[in-house]
Amino acid sequence: MAENADKITPATLYPNHVSSSKLTNGLCHQTEQNGTQLLGKEPWWKAGVFYQVYPASFMDSNGDGWGDIPGLISKLDYLSDLGVDCVWLSPVFDSPQADMGYDVRDYQAIYAPYGTAEDVDRLTEECHRRGMKLILDLVVNHTSVEHAWFQESRSSKTSPKRDWYIWKPARYNSQGERIPPTNWRGYFACPTWTWDEETQEYYLHLYAPDQPDLNWENPDCRDAIYKETMRFWLDRGVDGFRIDTVNKYSKRTEYQDAPVTDPRWESQPAPEMWCNGPRIHEFIHEMNEKALAPYQAVSVGELSNMAGPADVLPYVGAARRELDMVFEFSMIRLGTGGGFGPKYIYQPYTLPTLKRHVARFQTFIEGTDGWTTVFCENHDNGRAVSRFGDSGSGAELWRASARTLALWQATLTGTLFLYQGQEIGMVNMPAAWGIEEYKDVESRNFYADASASGDRDRVDKTMHGLRILARDHSRIPFQWDGEARNAGFSDADETWMRVHDGYRDINVKKQTGDPASVLEFWRRLLKIRKKYPDVFVHGVFRSLRDEDLQRYVYVKESKLDVNGKPGTKRRALVVMNWSKEVQEPENVNEVLGCSAESAHFLVSTTDGCRERAQLDAALEPWEGRIYTNFQP
Ligand code: GLC
Ligand code: CA
Predict the structure, then answer these.
(1) CB of residue 103 inside a 6 A radius of ligand 1
(2) Is 0.85 topped by the overall pTM?
């Protein structure tokens, strides 16, 4: 092992090494054990752990092969035991399921296979009874083509709801052929306009043609959204919303062509035409004032295509009264070829790139009234352990890397979001599965597009990308039990997506009570995060060894002093080995800026698997550790 070449010293790490503490001794004293009292004034959702449930795949209670709300209710104790504070339920509203419920036909009714509105009421009660909250997924950039509003809008040009969607006349090219109003390419490998024969106009859809965009410029339409979708469910007792595609409501209203960036396509990527448009902050503020704030509802918006932190901050600054928090995607999009053209042509990247994205969105809130989120999985991405960890080199490294990714997530600043199955290290669908097992509209369209090109290489590359990145990987049935049919997810002969072949190895039952498991490690980490929120939830993030290709190292620093001693901030050092090779350790007390006696081992990913190494022992493959400068 090489000598520590780039030596890290407290002076470079902590420029304000001795800082004045405004805390009274009394307060500091109270917080010696943990930072929870001091942070008691913060809103619940900052230190709360959120858990996303994908309803179709979580738990099937009636054997029809689809997960459902009663199934979810039957697993609430499991979530509560894990340490979850809030359940985020992906769309359960009535829908023709062109995009798995992100195409809503009726905001006030529940898709029958999932249950009824009364089941949602019961779910809310059952969450509340366990001290948990429930948020629903609000999809109001667009509706389904089958929504009554769109049916009315499309019925005639003079319909009172015509203007609730975005209709434009055709253009004609030099040959006199009809062409769409703009050349925009949307998501799912679709152009953004569909021709309506009946009324002889095009309607806009950023996603599939089944998902027409609502016209937020129309005030009646906005009021209907607030009242009939948001307030309707808030009145019934839900605690807030994850808000889909939140920065796409205000389009640039000139409706001009986007520059041609790829002459091979008829339509061109044009996110600048519909993301963060001129009235977006006005709309979101209004949404907050009219629907969220009166209920003190929590909000987390999906914010894609952002140039950088300066553009994100206005959405989450508390004084602006827009959103509590957002998901920013630069880290989770790593490996994709961008959202529009070659999304599934895999683009390799290095650990330093990942670290840079994380560091940016860890630190951008410093000195502001904004807030950030922490997540590495959701229903739109491949599994983290398959993308960022090592799920392909055997059980040992699968487990070690899943645990290290857990340690990473649980020590970052912001509100932590887990996705179902992440807590047991669920992995991507087997590589041997063919395209027929991919059910997602996006996977299918990109694959069909590649096939239609007749370019064999593009088809192979697309399939390769899908194996890593497809949205399908996170959507297969949850693995509850290795001995039960369909992994304990369902009694059905056939489940809506195929159950992973590896469910006997990776499942809740097998991991429960096993101190060496991914699940028990997550449980432990969430307790640690909650015990020291000043460090882990609210701490200042300082990255080290930015250019190291294997080691991922950072310090989290609290606002609180160690044992109330002014100028001695509580710190945690997170050292992780993101590789298969043994890595040299850190000089722990030096980096923490404390004496050797004051440096403590808080946790290692090998805990429960084998005896813990010395403070200064080399890091095993995919091992992660936390050290502190205070007595844990
Ligand atoms: C969001 C959802 C995604 C959906 C899209 C259209 O990105 O997370 O699943 O396809 O919006 O609603
Ligand atoms: Ca069912």
Answers:
(1) no
(2) yes
